[in-house]
Design brief:
Radius of gyration of chain A: 13 Å
Largest interface: A-B, 29 and 28 residues
Strand content of chain B: over 45%
Oligomer: heterodimer
Distance between the termini of chain B: 39 Å
Order of helices and strands of chain B: EEEEEEEEEEEE
Shape of chain B: globular
Number of strands of chain A: 11
Strand content of chain A: over 45%
Structural class of chain B: mainly beta
Helix content of chain A: under 10%
Number of helices of chain B: 0
């Protein structure tokens, strides 16, 4: 079974802190994604990566950056956390292909005070 | 522009009844894929069913089926014989053909099954 793990289930940070969210997948997937989920808005794509060291902006990249140094690991970085970045963050991975589903991690609920 | 629309924020259904969750989409691509995911209160996203734009038959997976009406650009999820464990958020998503591998999600529908 595909396993996608995220470094924390819950995280509390202060405004202005640098925040790292880590995601690791164990199925050699090319694609990795970071979403944020907010009530009434569904999942919105922040960044995605289709290969090591490659990254593409999603729909809401402002205030975020990413890093993919190894194929299995995709990190989301909040350079200076703000209260409007309080949200649920979901990582996902998939193989290449139109019909390939994305496999999701358990999510990180981030609270920025 | 919104590409996936789920117009039902919440639905309440009696146990053992069938339920239809609506999803409409917008794309100019001829090749695309449609997905449904379930998100229980625990938070994990669970893949339910997939429909390709060129698939002639409606997709089915156990109690889940996808009512695909291409001309109307709708991809409704049908759950037969609902169970209490079906209570969750449900998301419709689309991937367009071409280079990008990303999914675009709808706003979700919260389904509650009453005993």
């Amino acid at each position: 079974d595909v396993k996608v793990t995220q470094s924390s289930r819950y995280l509390v940070k202060r405004t202005g802190e640098k925040v790292f969210l880590e995601c690791v997948q164990d199925m050699d997937h090319e694609n990795m994604f970071w979403y944020r989920q907010d009530p009434g808005l569904g999942l919105r794509l922040i960044y995605f990566s289709y290969d090591v060291k490659m990254k593409e902006k999603g729909d809401i990249p402002e205030g975020y950056s990413v890093s993919r140094e190894k194929k299995e690991r995709f990190s989301l970085i909040l350079e200076s956390a703000s209260t409007n970045q309080t949200s649920m963050y979901l990582c996902a991975s998939s193989l290449l292909g139109l019909q390939e589903t994305q496999y999701f991690g358990p999510g990180t609920r981030l609270l920025v005070l | 522009a919104q590409k996936i629309t789920q117009t039902q924020p919440g639905m309440f259904v009696q146990e053992k009844e069938a339920v239809t969750l609506d999803c409409t989409y917008d794309t100019s691509d001829q090749s695309y894929g449609l997905f449904w995911y379930k998100q229980p209160s625990s938070g994990e996203m669970i893949f339910l069913i997939y429909q390709g734009s060129y698939d002639e038959q409606n997709a089915t997976e156990g109690r889940y089926s996808l009512n695909f009406q291409k001309a109307r650009k709708s991809a409704n999820l049908v759950i037969s014989a609902s169970q209490l464990g079906d209570s969750a958020m449900y998301f419709c998503a689309m991937r367009e053909g071409g280079g990008a591998q990303k999914l675009v999600f709808g706003q979700g529908t919260r389904l509650t099954i009453n005993p």
